Amino acid sequence: MHGRPRKPLKPEEGAASFAKAANLRTLQAQLLHNHHHKIYIKDALDLSSKLLEINPEAYTAWNYRKLAVEHNLRSETDPDSIKAILSEELRLVESALRRNFKSYGAWHHRKWVLSKGNSSLDHEFRLLDQFQKADSRNFHAWNYRRFVAALKNVSEEEELKFTTDMINTNFSNYSAWHNRSVLLSHLLKQRVQGYFPREKVLTEEYDLVHQALFTDPDDQSGWFYHLWLLDQTVKPDAPLLVSSWPVHGSDLIISLGRNLDGRALSPFTSFHSDTGEFPLILYFNQAVEGVDSSTVTVESVFDKNADLMWRPLLTNNSGNAQVWVTYLKLPDVKDHSLKAYPVGVSIGHTQGIISSGGSHYSHPSQFEFTVSLQPIDSEHAERGPGTEMVVWKDGNFHTNKTILQDVSPTIDYFDQLRIEKDIEPTTSMWHAKTVANEIVLFRELLSEINCKIGKLTLARLLIGHDSIMSYNKTPYSYKRVYSQEVLELLSDLMKLDPSHSRYYKDEHSLVLMCQVTSNKELLLRHCWYYKESTSWSIHNSICLRLNNLSLSRIGSVENLLWVQMLDLSHNELRSIEGLEGMQLLSCLNLSNNKLSSFTALEPLRLLKSLKVLDISYNELGAHSIDTTRYLCSSPLSHTVGSDWDVDKCETDDVKVTNYWDVVLIFRGLHLTQLDIVGNAISDDKFKLLLAKVLPSLKWLDGEDVC
Amino acid sequence: MGELEMEKHVLYILSVEKKKDDFESVVMEHLRINGAYWGLTTLDLLGKLGTVDSDEVVSWILKCQHDSGGFGGNIGHDPHILYTLSAVQILALLNNLDVLDVDKLTNYISGLQNEDGSFSGDVWGEVDTRFSYIAICCLSILHRLDRINVEKAVNYIVSCKNLDGGFGCTPGGESHAGQIFCCVGALAITGSLHHVDKDLLGWWLCERQVKSGGLNGRPEKLPDVCYSWWVLSSLIMIDRVHWIDKEKLVRFILDCQDKENGGISDRPDDAVDVFHTYFGVAGLSLLEYPGLKAIDPAYALPVDIINRIFFGR
Ligand SMILES: [Zn+2]
């Protein structure tokens, strides 16, 4: 029941209710009797009308009337009588709707009657005008309006005018804005006369929605419409390649054992492989499909292009992904010559890479790099990441002037070598001008009134401005001028609107990560050496430390494809979505965060090189509700077959059914070191299960696994 | 504000079942099977399902089934997919799914799929994404999802996606929290959540929280306890539930309790009913309120039951 006050019935009301109930019960019983016995005489029909006028939700009564109408029409040939039969149904629906405007059964009955023909559609529009005036937000009426407009072939332009009228009468009508967005996006897509060029139309729409937003900034009706316009303005339609690993022009050195000559190697270009292959990663600005050996050509001595398998890096099975990877096989190296093998990659010269919105990749591009192989030192062949226990304490990290020399040139180098440097500007003047104009307007609004939507929109506009400007530049050559202001706006919002503070916090984290990773000086401050390189066999001992930044979410992964050792500890991460793009990661510290379920670790399943993982001091096992239960592949979402090998891990002590998520996440990993202490779930039985699921494990919580 | 009046709510639900004489009970008679699902699930979340005679319930449910395989809302009422879902959910709740003739039931449901992938609610052809959810949810519980064209079903749901990130009843229909739950739930069960723009929809959903802490179902509407379920479950399925103030919502739901006679209403001081009592308790379960069993956000059944169905051996 909705909107009925809670108060005990007075005795006389109770009696009346009792009498009403008795009457209704009799009607319902008689209706069912007539229905079951197919009695369609006038008295029986009248009785069903009476019932539906009291209780329009009695769906079986509507069904009964449909059967009766069909029965009575069958023996009727006189057009007037046919019309009379159908009109009576329309009358009944109208009267039922006056009782309950939200009755699904009544609205559907009306559609059913209309589909029989013989009814005046103009009458329906008049009725709708009446109803929609009385309740301008009723979504049944709006749906019905779309239905009647289609039947009557009313043009979308005309219906768009209706939404303009409704909005001008009262801009606080989300339903009208919604219908407008449906009609307009359709008109724009079809390039209907008067709705082209798109820019002209969108400019007019900005003007319309400003009136709503600036009249009452707290009214949500225009918020989402404005955001939709902003999206149209800021996001490029066509997919773009934003980064790759290896980068263009780099000279990659891959070792299969330890570094023999002791030369300091750059983290950006050296890579250890113990599987005899290395990844080639393409990172797009949006999810795309169709990356394969026909749309991407890789020329190398390693593999035939046609043999390369491109894989979307996804935690679902959609085939649409922002990041794609293929693995190139290394030849056996016998000589110690450090010969550089060239690799050429060209993308999009044949059509086929398409965004989920249906736009084609339209900027054919290519890049080159070389690969030299470090010979295997048989004596130390077994050494590499994961051969010695990693200890993530501050004392093990150090920095000095040489890190600048080691890393800085390669960042510059990395910088120049963005792939998209020769393309024509992807965004027209209109986009930049529109965003600039909006920024001015919202600054004005905020100078008059301190409102949350003003601040949030300004933050979004500034982010949009920076991303438009950066599309045509390399990441370090365009300085994101507004980052600091956006961070301040979001911090203000956390205070202004505390109920949604964690929404702003997540946005804050994304902007912060973008700021840190797309600025050379800032990024360098987070690069550290792990231990003395002599004592450890991983020649690439540079760790990116993004710890203690109070990050709640990860972003800008496209700038971090080179990272092999990452410290994200002491943040507020609830999710590591996006991390799957960092295919080179071998050591990862996620300790002291807010990860609350194993299914939240799903991105790790896609990290082939991961050896060392610290997830200690999180909230694993502490929550009854798992918020990534359906974002993770599992039998619950039919993304993992029921044949997964859960039984293999069953022991007398451990009911695997209770730990399905643990098995699902860890079974494909090849960890040698895991730290999991400090979670709600870390008892001995659980550790036994882990040892079973992770046979490669050498150290668990700092202790040897026997 | 105080605490959740667990015992009073149990008594209230048990009393509703017996009360058949007032007008509201008669008005609800045609959807008694929905009422049974709301009541029984609430009892289970409160840990009191044991007080119910499950044999009696099961035999009554079977009397609601028609030759077509579909269930009516009560004995003698026509079959409809809305009531078929409740029947399946109740039988799952009582661990009694094996009383069903699964092939007959799946034939009924798969027979309701249309050429465009959508589902009709019954033979009379009303189409709505609610029915897509129901078909997918039922068949998944029965391990028979392969009996429909899932790809087409998903594409139809995606065609109902709006520019605000939400979903409507049919293509072009306005976003509504109840409808969003159905569409997101169906996409979750079919492993298709990549069709959802989680940040956009998440923002729309979290903005459903109003000053009182309660949630509304559409912009500029009043808050209502039933949206605690629809908005919360959707936010959980897309991992954005932390974007609302959970404590304030808990307080709003608790404020809607009838602390004397049990039951929960749509808003504070309104009349209680079993529908809002279920949505209030289920909402609190999603908010991890202590002492309640956890509920699954997609199947709308307790997590232990869903885990038994999918991981039990
Ligand atoms: Zn409600």
TrEMBL record, chain A:
It comes from Tetracentron sinense (Spur-leaf). GO terms for biological process: prenylation. One of its GO terms (molecular function) is Rab geranylgeranyltransferase activity. InterPro entries: Leu-rich_rpt, Leu-rich_rpt_4, LRR_dom_sf, Prenyl_trans_a. PROSITE patterns: LRR, PFTA. Catalyzes the transfer of a geranyl-geranyl moiety from geranyl-geranyl pyrophosphate to cysteines occuring in specific C-terminal amino acid sequences. It catalyses: geranylgeranyl diphosphate + L-cysteinyl-[protein] = S-geranylgeranyl-L-cysteinyl-[protein] + diphosphate. Keywords: Leucine-rich repeat, Prenyltransferase, Repeat, Transferase. Belongs to the protein prenyltransferase subunit alpha family. Its EC number is 2.5.1.60. Pfam families: LRR_4 (PF12799), PPTA (PF01239). The lineage of its organism: Eukaryota, Viridiplantae, Streptophyta, Embryophyta, Tracheophyta. GO terms for cellular component: Rab-protein geranylgeranyltransferase complex. Gene3D superfamilies: Protein prenylyltransferase (1.25.40.120), Ribonuclease Inhibitor (3.80.10.10). This is Geranylgeranyl transferase type-2 subunit alpha.
UniProtKB/TrEMBL annotation, chain B:
Its cofactor is Zn(2+). Gene3D superfamilies: 1.50.10.20. Coiled coil: none annotated. Residues 4-300 form the Prenyltransferase alpha-alpha toroid domain. One of its GO terms (biological process) is root development. GO terms for cellular component: Rab-protein geranylgeranyltransferase complex. Keywords: Metal-binding, Prenyltransferase, Repeat, Transferase, Zinc. Required for male fertility and root tip growth. Catalyzes the transfer of a geranylgeranyl moiety from geranylgeranyl diphosphate to both cysteines of proteins with the C-terminal sequence -XXCC, -XCXC and -CCXX. This is Geranylgeranyl transferase type-2 subunit beta. The lineage of its organism: Eukaryota, Viridiplantae, Streptophyta, Embryophyta, Tracheophyta.
